[in-house]
């Protein structure tokens, strides 16, 4: 059971004026990057990584968590007003939300998205508070072979489910594993894949890779696909009376709760995160809704449920991240990189070694959720203005910050060359449908998996069967096969449903 004293101490820390400002900064930046098409929380966190070294680790994590939660909310604004999802998890919101906006009900769509995000985010954070300590206590008992099994599960599911195809996802993962091996072998002291470059003996900094693929590569890709001319944003009526009617509240509260119940458990497992949960929520609401005939024409349930699932999944993603050190989304992978830059390894011992950090971070999530609700509805006009920022200024700024931040890591021009090269690789990966998240996950978890494999083989005196014969490892591999089959089936259903909806809208 959660230590109530530790939770209260976390709130006492998070309510300090400095940490409140960092939480506000995080949710504000997160909403801004979520609003802008093509810029997600993963890029924002990666871009800010080099710029937060002067902050203490608690402040930095509060900012990053605020960006994550804010980005989940901000994507709904773009989907509803522009029909251009800023994140893949917001695709479903665009199906009904944009139709509501076209019929003059954009304010109601934005309101149900905001309130649903608050409800789901708060309930998801409560579940995180209750579940995470239990998982951490259990994870302490795992052996090296069990950790290898967990990492294999993360490798296969992230590689197979993030991207347009399994082969491309696994290819991206393999590239990440290779990059993670560059440097000096800690056991033998031999250099690996350094190609005679002394500066690569310490390996490639994960921050350079994260900034390269998420900031530089994504900025180049989005800039190459920019539309010319002004962006047409559907106007939103002013005044609280235009937000939600009594009927809208009545039709939204059940989808909020159902979306939360779907999103949180899906987020805790490496099965596609918010993307899968939003499609499952949309399919559920379409099947259960009393006003089923409105789906495809602007049903508010089709906005309320997926937006709740989206934010609940974000809370669920933090469970394996904090308790096992396993990232299941792109943003979670970058957040693990952020922990590592401070010399902290997320995992079961994090709750024992850094309890103040963990519970202050969790408390800041509650506070950040409230900030999102209080500030975002009145600031819809501001976000509409953000959408009109000239894109060439925006992406020029992103590239400049990426270069300055990467150079500040070691004050080395080699890092700038690596940043450019990795950014170009990231650009071509995005252009040809190769997901970049598995690359970062492979780079972060690859060295950890190698270390655990060596420990297992050292304990078993070289017996390879030790990797699969422990009860937990055998169970994990069996569940992996089932999970992968179900997730791929669900993805196929999502694509079919999305194709049908697009065909109906066309």
UniProtKB/TrEMBL annotation:
Q: Where is the DUF112 domain?
A: 20-440
Classify the source by domain of life. Bacteria
InterPro entries noted in UniProt: DUF112_TM
What the entry lists under Pfam families is as follows:
TctA
Q: Does the keyword Metal-binding apply?
A: no
What keywords sit in the KW lines? Membrane, Transmembrane, Transmembrane helix
Chain ranges passing through the membrane: 19-39, 45-69, 108-135, 147-163, 170-187, 199-222, 321-344, 356-384, 396-429, 472-490
The reply to whether Transmembrane figures as a keyword in the UniProt entry is yes
This chain belongs to which protein, by name?
Answer: Tripartite tricarboxylate transporter permease
């Amino acid at each position: 059971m959660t230590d109530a004293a530790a939770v209260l101490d976390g709130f006492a820390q998070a309510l300090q004026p400095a940490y409140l400002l960092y939480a506000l900064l995080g949710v504000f930046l997160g909403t801004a990057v979520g609003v802008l098409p093509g810029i997600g929380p993963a890029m924002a966190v990666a871009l800010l990584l080099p710029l937060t070294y002067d902050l203490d680790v608690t402040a930095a994590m509060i900012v990053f968590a605020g960006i994550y939660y804010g980005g989940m909310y901000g994507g709904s604004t773009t989907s509803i007003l522009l029909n251009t999802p800023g994140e893949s998890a917001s695709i479903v919101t665009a199906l009904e939300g944009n139709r509501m906006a076209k019929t003059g009900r954009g304010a109601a769509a934005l309101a149900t998205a905001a309130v649903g995000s608050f409800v789901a985010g708060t309930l998801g954070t409560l579940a995180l508070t209750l579940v995470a300590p239990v998982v951490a206590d259990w994870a302490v008992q795992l052996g090296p072979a069990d950790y290898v099994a967990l990492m294999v599960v993360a490798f296969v599911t992230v590689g197979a489910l993030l991207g347009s195809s399994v082969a491309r996802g696994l290819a991206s993962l393999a590239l990440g594993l290779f990059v993670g091996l560059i440097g000096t072998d800690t056991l033998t002291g031999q250099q690996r894949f350094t190609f005679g470059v002394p500066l690569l003996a310490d390996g490639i900094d994960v921050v350079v890779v994260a900034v390269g693929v998420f900031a530089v590569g994504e900025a180049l890709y989005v800039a190459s696909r920019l539309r010319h001319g002004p962006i047409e944003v559907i106007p939103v009526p002013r005044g609280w009376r235009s937000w939600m009617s009594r009927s809208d509240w009545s039709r939204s509260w059940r989808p909020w709760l159902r979306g939360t119940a779907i999103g949180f458990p899906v987020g805790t497992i490496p099965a596609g995160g918010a993307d899968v949960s939003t499609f499952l929520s949309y399919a559920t609401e379409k099947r259960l809704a009393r006003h089923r005939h409105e789906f495809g024409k602007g049903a508010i349930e089709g906005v309320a449920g997926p937006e709740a699932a989206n934010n609940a999944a974000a809370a669920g993603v933090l469970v394996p991240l904090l308790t096992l050190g396993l990232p299941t989304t792109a943003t979670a992978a970058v957040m693990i990189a952020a922990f590592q830059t401070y010399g902290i390894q997320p995992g079961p011992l994090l709750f024992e070694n850094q309890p103040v950090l963990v519970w202050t971070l969790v408390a800041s999530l509650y506070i950040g959720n409230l900030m999102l609700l209080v500030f975002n509805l009145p600031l819809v006009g501001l976000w509409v203005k953000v959408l009109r920022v000239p894109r060439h200024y925006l992406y020029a700024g992103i590239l400049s910050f990426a270069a300055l931040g990467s150079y500040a890591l070691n004050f080395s021009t080699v890092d700038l060359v690596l940043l450019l090269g990795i950014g170009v690789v990231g650009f071509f990966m995005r252009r040809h449908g190769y997901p970049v998240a598995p690359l970062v996950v492979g780079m972060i978890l690859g060295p950890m998996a190698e270390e655990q494999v060596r420990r297992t083989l050292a304990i078993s005196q070289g017996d390879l069967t030790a990797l699969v014969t422990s009860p937990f490892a055998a169970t994990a591999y069996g569940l992996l096969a089932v999970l992968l089959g179900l997730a791929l089936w669900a993805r196929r259903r999502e694509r079919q449903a999305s194709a049908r909806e697009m065909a109906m809208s066309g």
